[in-house]
Amino acid sequence: MTTHRPLRILILCTVSTGLDAVQAVLSQTNDVVGLVGLHPDQADPTAISGYVDIRSFCTKNDLPAYLVQSYTLSQQGDRLLFDKLDFDLIWVAGWQRLIPKWLIEMAPLGALGSHGSPDGIQGGRGRSPQNWALILGCRQFSIALFRITPGVDEGDVIAEQSFFYEEQDDIVVSYYRASIATADMVCEVLNNPAMFDTARPQNGMARYLPQRRPQDGWVDWNLPARTIARHARALTRPYPGLQTSIGDMDLRLWRCQVFDDVVSAEPGAIQTVFLTGEFLVSCGDGRLLVRDWTASNSRWLPKVGNILKGKSFDETMAGIIDGHQSRYDDQLLSRRLAPWMRKHQGHTI
């Protein structure tokens, strides 16, 4: 591909986790013609984790902001908005929905996206890859910059990078790591557009990570404390948090850590409450220190002897797997889920 002038780049991003990469790219180029986000009147925070109104970011960066009325870009007014814009390339930096074919075709150079998983783009297409990586205890994440097609993460790969997780990384740190890798690759492509011509197709069998819903975030107090702490790190803000309950009141656990290996009460029992409001909960192999939490009743305080409820992690995984297979029976699930799939005969591994 030959180009004799700077590319005009239009960015789609309406979640906070994408803005760090956008900021990094803006520091390296003046070729961005605007940022597209979802209008706050149309944003459902329960359906879009980390939603952000892009206007303040754009004002700070002296960048035009364009607001659409539909996250799926299905409104006629959204298409008319894009018709008025002049751009060569679309970069999808934070948009948790598929991009329609008509928009991809509107850009002469198409659309760029990034996706990854512990097994690369082809081994973990689909939903919530960084959450899954942390939940499953993976130590490495490989991310690709690829050409977006109307399908799910199936376009030609232009560049790839990997990073490693540290023991205490949470989902926010994971997004920091991904934003650095993504921004590096985007800047590399902008500086060397010939990379478009060397993109490689994804050949062979693809596997998918299934969708996670807020109700899939229940704690299982029978698990080891280290595993529960890992789950909390995967689901902390901007996600809905690790969920537990007492009576009809919900609690969200945002930050936890292993405390010791003392097992002296049933799983879920609060054993010690500190003056700070932090508390110890009995788990499968010891005690977990809950350091940051919120309750649906703001007046509730933890008490020794309270029994916090949870849900079997195996049951949660069974529901996720069943839901995926019932909707997308042609999409083979990631091999990382094989231990749970084996427990439910009839699923292809």
TrEMBL record:
Q: Which UniProt keywords apply?
A: Oxidoreductase, Transferase
EC number per UniProt: 1.1.1.305, 2.1.2.13
- All copies of domain Formyl transferase N-terminal, residue ranges: 62-163
**GO molecular function annotations of the record:** methionyl-tRNA formyltransferase activity; UDP-4-amino-4-deoxy-L-arabinose formyltransferase activity; UDP-glucuronate dehydrogenase activity
- What protein am I looking at? UDP-4-amino-4-deoxy-L-arabinose formyltransferase/UDP-glucuronic acid dehydrogenase (UDP-4-keto-hexauronic acid decarboxylating)
* Keyword match Transferase: yes
Q: Which SUPFAM superfamilies does the record associate with it?
A: FMT C-terminal domain-like (SSF50486), Formyltransferase (SSF53328)
- Cellular component terms (Gene Ontology): cytosol
Does the keyword Transferase belong to this entry? yes
- The residues covered by the Formyl transferase C-terminal domain are 214-294
